[in-house]
Design brief:
The chain is mainly α. It has a single domain (about 25-120), classed as Cytochrome Bc1 Complex, Chain D, domain 2 (Orthogonal Bundle). Helices cover about 40% and strands about 5% of the residues. It has five helices and two strands. It has helices spanning about 5-20, 35-45, 85-95, 95-100, 110-120; strands at about 75, 80. A two-stranded antiparallel sheet has the order 1-2. A hairpin with a 3-residue loop joins β1 (about 75) and β2 (about 80). α2 crosses α5 (about 110-120) and α3 (about 85-95) crosses α5 (about 110-120).
């Protein structure tokens, strides 16, 4: 092998090694059904925006609860449970069952509606 070829191989190998060391972006949560557009409508219908700031949801400019911007990139639901679809659906349908001291009210959201709402929240990256 010529010296130039060896130098190119070392350069390529080094670049590949550096790429392998970069931290991975978090994988998006797995979805178990749900229609994001319907979820967006439901977030407005249940007036989630009176407490939360939610991108592209009409009148969702609340400041009492955390902003839901970039929700899909979060590691946790409500700061405590892994950001998984099943935990999020449970949190939306019955927050008090997960954290009795939470200020998040039980809004009477069905599991089906919560799946749609979660599907929309997981589009927020």
């Amino acid at each position: 092998m010529h010296l130039q070829q060896i130098a190119r191989c070392v350069t390529v190998a080094g670049a590949l090694l550096l790429c392998a060391c970069q931290p991975e972006k978090p994988a998006p949560p797995r979805l178990d059904g749900g229609n994001p557009q319907q979820g967006k409508r439901l977030l407005a219908q249940y007036q989630c925006g009176s407490c939360h700031r939610i991108p592209d949801v009409e009148s969702a400019r609340g400041l009492a609860g955390p902003s839901l911007e970039r929700f899909a990139l979060r590691s946790y639901v409500a700061g405590r449970w892994s950001n998984r679809h099943d935990w999020l659906v449970r949190w939306i349908t019955s927050p008090q069952s997960m954290d009795p001291g939470s200020f998040m009210p039980n809004m009477g959201v069905s599991a089906d509606d919560a799946r749609h709402m979660a599907a929309y929240l997981y589009t927020l990256k």
